[in-house]
Design goal:
CATH class of the largest domain: Mainly Beta
Number of domains: 2
Structural class: alpha+beta
Shape: elongated
CATH superfamily of the largest domain: Cupredoxins -  blue copper proteins
Strand order of the largest sheet: 3-2-1-5-8
Helix content: 25-40%
Distance between the termini: 68 Å
Number of helices: 4
Bound molecules: copper (II) ion
Radius of gyration: 25 Å
Largest sheet: 5 strands, mixed
Length: about 280
C-alpha cells in the first residue's frame, strides 16, 4: 500500500507539472487559435496567472487522488476480490483527516485569493485616468486630465477590414492609446444598459452600469496592441463592440494626445446619438 501511495504521489506531481508547462507554452504562443490565457501585460494579470497555476496544481492533485481511490476501491473491494465485507462503520482518525485536509486546502486557496482581490481593487497613486462609457453598441473614452479629450470607438465592419493590419471583430476606428509603465485609474460606466469592460491581457473585467462609476486600474508593462470585448450581454450587437488599446512609450503618448486633441475637438462627443453602422 505504501509503495502504491508513493508511486501515486509521484505520478500526480508529474501530471500537474506537465499540465502547467503545456498551459504556459500555449499561453505564450501567438497562433491564430490558442489555448490558455493571453499573455499578461499588467501586474494584476501576472498575479492572476500565478494564482491560476497554484489552482491547477491543487485541482490536478485532488482529481488524480480521487480517481486513484475509485480505482482502488473497484479493484480491491469488489464482491469477487473481497467476498466478506468488513463491518467497520467509524474511523476517528480518517474522519478527522477528511474534514481537516479540505479545510486546510480551502485556506491555502483563500489567502492568495483575497490578497489578489484587494490588489486588483484600487491603484496606488494613479498618474492618470481613463474614463470608459459603454453604449449600445460602442465605447466612449475620456481622458479627464488632457482637457477632457474624448471620443467614441466603433468596431470596423467586415467589409472595411484591412486584413494586413486589422483584426476582424476586434479592430476599432478610434484606438485607445495609453502610456506604458504608468498607473492608470480606469473608471467604467454605461449610458444605456449594463455592459462590461473586459481586457484579458490586463486582467480586468469591470461591469459598466448606468448611474454607477466602477473603478479598476491598469499598469501596462509592455508596448503593444491589446484587444478586449464587452462581456455583458447588452443587446443585439453585444458581440460587435470590441476594445482596442495601443500601449506606447510615454513620449509617444504625449505626441498622440496633441494630435488627438485636434482630431476629436469637434466631433464624437460622448452622449450624442450616433447612428451605428450596424443598424
Ligand atoms: Cu455591451
Amino acid at each position: 500500500m505504501k509503495k502504491i501511495m508513493r508511486h501515486f504521489f509521484t505520478l500526480s506531481l508529474t501530471i500537474a507539472a506537465m499540465l502547467s508547462v503545456i498551459s504556459q507554452s500555449f499561453a505564450q504562443s501567438e497562433k491564430t487559435y490558442d489555448l490558455g490565457f493571453q499573455e499578461a501585460a499588467t501586474p494584476v494579470a501576472e498575479r492572476m496567472h500565478d494564482f491560476h497555476t497554484l489552482l491547477l496544481y491543487i485541482i490536478t492533485g485532488i482529481s488524480v487522488f480521487v480517481l486513484f481511490l475509485l480505482i482502488y476501491v473497484v479493484v480491491r473491494f469488489n464482491a469477487k476480490a473481497n467476498p466478506e465485507p468488513s463491518q467497520t462503520t467509524h474511523n476517528t482518525l480518517l474522519e478527522v483527516l477528511w474534514t481537516g485536509i479540505p479545510v486546510l486546502i480551502l485556506i491555502v486557496i483563500a489567502v492568495p485569493s483575497f490578497k489578489l482581490l484587494y490588489y486588483t481593487d484600487r491603484p496606488v497613486d494613479p498618474e492618470m485616468t481613463l474614463k470608459v462609457t459603454g453604449y449600445q453598441w460602442y465605447w466612449g473614452y475620456e481622458y479627464p486630465e488632457y482637457d477632457g479629450l474624448s471620443f467614441l470607438s466603433y468596431m470596423i465592419p467586415d467589409e472595411e477590414i484591412d486584413p494586413a493590419t486589422q483584426k476582424r471583430n476586434l479592430s476599432t476606428d478610434n484606438v485607445v492609446v495609453l502610456p506604458v509603465d504608468t498607473t492608470i485609474l480606469v473608471q467604467v460606466t454605461a449610458a444605456d444598459v449594463i455592459h462590461s469592460f473586459a481586457m484579458p491581457s490586463f486582467g480586468i473585467k469591470t461591469d459598466a452600469v448606468p448611474g454607477r462609476l466602477n473603478e479598476t486600474w491598469i499598469r501596462i508593462t509592455k508596448p503593444g496592441t491589446y484587444y478586449g470585448q464587452c462581456s455583458e450581454i447588452c443587446g443585439t450587437n453585444h458581440a460587435y463592440m470590441p476594445i482596442e488599446i495601443k500601449a506606447v512609450p510615454k513620449d509617444e503618448f504625449e505626441a498622440w494626445i496633441e494630435g488627438a486633441k485636434d482630431k476629436f475637438a469637434m466631433n464624437d462627443q460622448p452622449g450624442t446619438t450616433q447612428t451605428a453602422f450596424l443598424q
